[in-house]
């Protein structure tokens, strides 16, 4: 099972969540919001073979970016996983629009020509994220929890990027419409735990099974074939970014 976007460090009981995900066989990409968070997590994740730590620069943490950019560049070569990075021009993030753009262009410049698995935030800024990726030649990035217009989604798909979907998307009409528009070979499962809720509790990595269940019904495939498709999509992406250091 795959959870391609989980904020493992945001759980109050992060260790127990990681241990249970490991026991259940969930390959988990633990995204971070800032390089300082990535640094703090490094000593811990090495004990879990199925956890990969991603280097992040979250757009809603823009107030902290100026003092974190040097560390982002310093850690960039230590991991093949980058995230969460991107832009957020919703009401929550619009006041830091220019700071976000400067930071995301900084990240995209580093990604240009690099072989990384990239998990993107794009709320309210989907077209802008796509434009920056194109400007810097960033290919095969993963749009996490896409919620933008279907027209822009067409551009994301045409550019060859992937999209990761979570249980919350399967519960909304717009989310289901977006999911139905994504080609089978360009989709990954995620939870965005602990920010997504499942039955009133924070989603855990193994709740990616709910995404698999939805896709199995949508695609009219058995559960094992659905999981195999998602894993194949991920392996294809990872193989494009090898080697993958711990």
Structure in words:
- It is a single chain.
- The chain has 246 residues and is of the alpha/beta class.
- The chain has a single domain (2-239), classed as Metal-dependent hydrolases (TIM Barrel, Alpha-Beta Barrel), CATH 3.20.20.
- 43% of the residues lie in helices and 16% in strands.
- The chain contains ten helices and eleven strands.
- The protein has a six-stranded parallel sheet with strand order 4-5-6-7-8-9, sandwiched between helices. It has a three-stranded parallel sheet with strand order 1-2-3.
- Strand 2, helix 2 and strand 3 (51-53) form a beta-alpha-beta unit.
- Helix 9 (208-219) crosses helix 10.
- It starts with a strand and ends in a 7-residue tail after the last helix.
- 45% of the residues are buried.
- The model has no long low-confidence stretch (mean pLDDT 96).
